[in-house]
Design brief:
- Pfam families: Bac_DnaA_C (PF08299).
- It comes from Ponticaulis profundi.
- InterPro entries: DnaA_C, Trp_repressor/repl_initiator.
- This is Helix-turn-helix domain-containing protein.
- There is one protein chain.
- The protein contains six helices and no strands.
- By secondary structure, it is mainly α.
- It has a single domain, classed as Chromosomal Replication Initiator Protein Dnaa, Chain: A, CATH 1.10.1750.
- Helix 1 packs across helix 5, helix 2 runs antiparallel to helix 3 and helix 3 crosses helix 4.
Length: about 120
């Protein structure tokens, strides 16, 4: 996973952790963990694959899982999307990511540095 992909995946993980009220580090546990942690991890893996376009192998490496585990997570989340409430919630999460991702892009950081000068470079 490239540095850019890793940064975008970190943003997705942060959003999922906050939206599910699960600690961010719980999404990277080597064990399954609590059911809520596993579900949050499945959602994060799904979004990393769908929203970032990362391969199952790349997503698996990022989360310390096998690509078959990622494929299973994607099937689970796709099934959950049949529930209109979950679909709406997940769509809001995807929208939040799409709205925030450009702020963290390299061009945005470079522009911020230009706008704020050297002090701005240290700030972000």
């Amino acid at each position: 996973m490239s540095e850019v992909d890793r940064g975008r995946a970190d943003l997705l993980v942060e959003l999922v952790a906050r939206a599910t009220h699960i600690r961010k580090d719980s999404l990277f546990k080597t064990s399954r963990g609590e059911a809520a942690e596993a579900r949050a991890r499945q959602i994060a893996m799904y979004l990393a694959h769908v929203s970032l376009g990362c391969s199952l192998t790349k997503v698996g490496r990022f989360f310390g899982r096998d690509k078959t585990t990622v494929a299973y997570a994607i099937r689970i989340v796709e099934d959950l999307r049949d529930d209109p409430e979950f679909e709406d919630w997940l769509q809001h999460l995807e929208d939040a990511y799409q709205n925030l991702a450009p702020i963290f892009s390299e061009p945005a950081r470079a522009r911020l540095t230009v706008l704020l000068g050297a002090r701005g470079a240290a700030w972000h």
